[in-house]
Amino acid sequence: MSPSSIGRGATALAVVGLAAVTLAACSRGPVPEPQPAFYHRLDQTGGAVDPASSLSMINMYRANKGLAPLVWDPALARVAQGQVDRMASADKVHSVEEARLDVDLGGAGIGYRSFLANFSAGYRTFAEAFSGWRESKTHDATMLAPRATRIGLATAQAPNSKYKIFWTMVVVEPK
User: Fold this and answer.
1) Cβ of 51: how many Cβ atoms within 10 Å?
2) How far is it, in rounded angstroms, from Cα 140 to Cα 124?
3) Torsions phi, psi of 119, nearest 5?
4) 10 Å Cβ neighbour count for 25?
């Protein structure tokens, strides 16, 4: 065998190998895109709401309405978590516990001129919660509060509840 025939044989082998790899990849189908965090089923996974994707969705909505973006506030998220945990344990969306929200904000050292909150249950994903809030005049007003600058959002699972998951969102206007 001459060196040129060995080179042609190696080239042919490489082409056949590349074709086999390409065909194998095609037979598995396209690689699925990862699902955005706002579509994750929080009622089943026990996971928490993703601050980045939820804040992005709310801020895009606000921007479309000519409003300034909100900033994620971890202290507000902790206050929201306390509220939503109480709702899940009571298996009630609205209760007398709501009156504690102003006390919780003060106890967390969060200064504010005003605050608004959304309390809800049963939405399986953030995308569902966002859509439901957008369709409710009161909840929509919370997301679109023109002077609000900070936001906290939290969920709590309640597997034995008819709702399965509870939501609290708090926005504040600074002092």
Assistant:
1) 17
2) 19
3) -120, 130
4) 11
Q: Which residues of 162-174 are buried (b: 16+ CB within 10 A; e: fewer)?
A: ebbbbbbbbbbee
In what side-by-side order are the strands of the sheet with 150-158? 71-72, 150-158, 164-173, 114-121
Distance of CA 26 to the CA centre of its chain: 33
Q: List the one residue out of 7, 40, 4 whose CA is nearest residue 126.
A: 40
State the residue for tokens 């082998």.
13
Predicted model pTM: 0.74
Residues contacting 172, CB < 8 A, separation 6+:
73, 76, 105, 110, 112, 113, 114, 115, 148, 149, 150
The answer to whether 40 and 123 have CB atoms below 8 angstroms apart is no
Of residues 122, 165, 129, 120, the one with CA closest to residue 37: 129
pLDDT tens-digit profile of 115-171?
Answer: 999 999 999 889 999 999 999 999 999 999 999 999 999 999 998 999 999 999 999
Paired residues of 173 in beta bridges: 114
Please name the residues in contact with 88: beta carbons below 8 A apart, sequence gap of 6 or more.
Answer: 156, 157, 158, 161, 166
Of 140, 142, 150, the residue nearest 173 (C-alpha): 150
- Cβ-in-10-Å burial (0-12, 13-18, 19+) of 54 comes to buried
